[in-house]
Amino acid sequence: MRTKMRAFQFLFGIIFFLSPFSGKADYPRPWQMYYQEPVTPVMDHIYDFHRTLLFIEGSIVLLVAALLIFVIVRFRARKNPAPSPTSHNTLLEMVWTAIPVLVLAFIAFPSIKLLYMMDVTPKAQLTIKAIGNQWYWTYEYPDHNIRFDSNMLPDNQIKAGQFRLLEVDNRVVVPVNTNVRIITTSSDVIHSWAVPAFGVKRDSVPGRLNETWFNVRKEGVYYGQCSELCGVKHGFMPIVVEAVTQDKFNQWLASKKSAPQTHKGG
């Protein structure tokens, strides 16, 4: 009975690991093994492209495995004591050269289209500048004259429903269904501004401005982290983006403009 239970658990684990729908969320969860739920057009395309590649790769693995099994069984020494002297087959060599070329061509076109979509920012309706510091983020809303720092909350300030090592004292707030341009740089070393649910990951390089974008279609709170090794506290630079309605965003802007700026330099 115990052996059957272990076998069932092992099989369930394999299915859970391979399932493209497991562990979907807008924040990381225990034992999550797959993507977070896509909430932007870019992440939608990344997710679909990944599933397409997974299908192609799986088909190739199954085909090669089947051919290996066939060759092992059909041409084993016991059944073929006198090996065939055939060393070349022109047609077969043309086929196994042409098929990989066609597969690569099939993959190339959507991948180039996706790279273009990720790299070219559409007309922005909101611009945010993200500046990496050791070890916190500074955000600027240049069109609204707002600037503030965003630091990870210490354990003794975490409230119910918040996530340890992921929550910050000042969230980035954006309206839904809005093209948001992120301009990122750094004041010291290389950081990386990344939010998995957005399909966004852009290096923050000192002395250089890098650009990316997103358009969140669903209200909620989305979590990311610095994704470039930037020093001893690299793991303590979370990113929190809160997507709200346009009315709530306008209220947030008004509250930020009336409150004293919290930027401390960097």
CATH overall fold name of the domain at 126-258 = Immunoglobulin-like
| Strand arrangement, major sheet | 3-2-1-5-8
The low-pLDDT segments are 8-25
Q: What is the second-level CATH architecture of the domain at 126-258? A: Sandwich
CATH C-level class of the domain at 126-258: Mainly Beta
What's the order of the H and E elements? Answer: HHHEEEEEEEEEEH
β-strand percent reads 15-25%
Task: Tell me about this structure.
By secondary structure, the chain is an alpha+beta fold. The protein has a domain at 126-258: Cupredoxins -  blue copper proteins (Immunoglobulin-like), CATH 2.60.40. Helices cover 35% and strands 22% of the residues. It has helices at residues 2-18, 41-74, 90-119, 246-258; strands at 126-133, 136-141, 146-150, 172-175, 180-186, 191-195, 200-204, 210-214, 220-225, 238-244. The strands form three sheets. Strands 3-2-1-5-8 form a five-stranded mixed β-sheet. A three-stranded mixed β-sheet has the order 4-10-9. A two-stranded antiparallel sheet has the order 6-7. α2 runs antiparallel to α3.
Quickly describe the structure.
This protein has helices at 2-18, 41-74, 90-119, 246-258, and strands spanning 126-133, 136-141, 146-150, 172-175, 180-186, 191-195, 200-204, 210-214, 220-225, 238-244. With 266 residues, the chain is an alpha+beta fold. The radius of gyration is 25 Å and the shape is elongated.
